[in-house]
Structure of Probable 6-phosphogluconolactonase:
Amino acid sequence: MASVLGEKERKKIVFPSKNELSEAMAKYTANLSAKFCKERGYFTLVLSGGDLISWLSELLKPVYQESIEWSKWHIFWVDERVVPLDHKDSNYKLAFDGFLSKVPIPIANIYAIDQDCAALGDAKGAALLYEKCIKRLVNRNIIRTYKSSGFPQFDLQLLGMGPDGHMASLFPGHYQIKEKANLVTYITDSPKPPPKRITFTLPVINCTSYNLMAVCDEAQADAVAKVFEDNFDLPSTWLTADVEAIWFLDQAAASKIPKGH
Ligand SMILES: O=C(O)C(O)[C@@H](O)[C@H](O)[C@H](O)COP(=O)(O)O
């Protein structure tokens, strides 16, 4: 695929089913955890909401439970819905109930959005405080910085895409995709409910060392095809990474990618 992404070409692997995809996602995550824990004593992992949290349950298998250095993991969210943390729409709750509560990651290493802003539905305040939290962890060298830019650089980010091509809470036709100065921004009229959300900005998303976009099902097939045709109207088309941006697709999601892409 020759594209304007140049060297930062997107890669893809198509799996026969969700099962194979989640097994591969677990392996990919465990390998990077081993690499970064060895190199720097920390593994910074960024989660999104949606289906991928259920695919992460593969990591609950004994082989990973026993080998992963969970105490070195630090967990962040690429986007979060601004609802109380115990609300059914909370990405924190989704990940905590389905995955985080079942592995020995220290609770202090799990960085949810500010509880008070979440309870009050204060999206602007939540974005400001999440940005402060990220900067604090950069100062403590838990999060690395990207080359000379000073932008935070996470080790691995796990993303999903909606049928409209959104990633994180960067939606087509909304200005947040163009934000370059802030690390974290907010939206109060998200087309996908709930309306109030915070999200990392594109520069932060793309500074990540490894970005894994996991997409399953036919509902996303048109959007996946547009991404691989380099249609930059879709926020997900902009996804790159410092080292590797890789798309994990099941056959249904990949079914409309034109031949040769
Ligand atoms: O909180 C959210 O809504 C998201 O983080 C969002 O960007 C999600 O990852 C995609 O919409 C894919 O969601 P599904 O996996 O449920 O299709």
